[in-house]
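To fix ideas, we now present one chain and its tokenised fold:
***
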Amino acid sequence: MRTELKRQIRRVANYVLIALAGLYAVDWAIFEARQLRGGGMGSVTVQKFLSTPLKGEKTEFDYLGTENDNCSQSLFPQYAASAWNPPCWWLARHKVKWVVTWCDHSSRRTAMGSTDAAACAGARQARSAVIPRITGAITITRGS
């Protein structure tokens, strides 16, 4: 009884994986046909924010402005123009893009890979000089 149930679950999982692989292959073929005709790609305007961790478990959020992100007019993400592009339907629902920087104070390593202590300590001041400030406050709560 138990082995029969496991066999059925494994069989259903195999069919689901085969169906998803087939669906991706059809989606890719349609996307490539659109690419050959000069289409297949789109663009969505997204808002870009910078998240910088500070001392004392605090985080600073800076608004970087808006930018146009490329997206593929397909069901799944597709590789085009030397990058993986999310589908336009997904990007249209997720119009906020976060750039997260970090500084590991134990090893003095920044997000750029530098091991210089001054670069780690001065990374925030350097970014503050070139990033426009947000007018007003942003409150972001982390989900549990």
Observations:
- Residues 112-139 have pLDDT under 50 and may be disordered.
- Residues 26 and 75 are 10 Å apart (CA to CA).
- The two ends are 39 Å apart (CA to CA).
